[in-house]
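Following up on my earlier thread - several people asked me to post the actual chain instead of describing it. Fair enough. Here it is, all 292 residues.
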Amino acid sequence: MIKRNKNIKGESAARRMAVLSAILLAGAAATCCGLAISVGALRDVWREQFGVRDTRIDVVVSSSGNIVQPDVITIHFGLTNGANLATIPFKELRASLMKRIPNIRNLKIERRLPRRVTIDVEERVPAVRIAPPKGKSDSGRVADFDGVVFRYFNSDPMPIIRESAEHSASPGERLAGNAAAALQLIKFLADAADAKGESSEPELADMRVLEIDTSKRDYLFVTFSDYSTAEIAWDRMGEGTERSSASLKRQLVHLAQAMAAHLTPRTTRWIATDFGPGGRVSAMDPSRAGGH
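Reply from S.P.:
Thanks for posting it. Predicted structure:
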């Protein structure tokens, strides 16, 4: 009987400990829940200060061009009255917008606490028109000097790059292959005209490109503004490296010097594809050249 009483007492003590532990756990859970509710409430109070009250004052959008309208920016980021700047994922939304609208070159977002945000849009500046191998040159596709293709209509006259039938860059993509080489040549001459960089050679100052056909694998067929034409190739075409730029510069200077001599009719087709040591520029009667 004595042993049985001891067992009963032990079981009672164990039950009391279990009940006490349950009470303590319940209390701890209640405390944690209360803390979480308190923290959430404080966080909500803290976030209230970042709410947009008047978009005319709190939201400022500016753009370097006139293609990307401010409404596109405010709608994409949800910057309306009542929006909370603390909860808007600006980084992710910026990336998705730039991917969707390749006209945007850069997007700078600056928050000014508590509730003001300024967004500066840098639009791409068209430098060349991108056209199919044949047909109209105004396809609505252009590219800037970064080589990024985007939509731009009713642009001012600018050099035309005619792509090959095998390669056609869509908006958002970069020019590649001979199209990239054509852009490199056009930019080189544009810099020369502005007397900028290493391309500032007097011989190149007046050379203007009207159109470049990129359909040939080994050279570019260039039509200049005076309607003279030339087949041009250089080392590492389209790479934009120092070696490539030096070779392009040498070819263009030699070509400009040959053209400036005025020893042939303006309709002459010039051949500047020999870029090796001692490379020469030659001339060809276009009536004997056939197709290019």
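Residues 38-42 have pLDDT under 50 and may be disordered. That should answer part of your original question.
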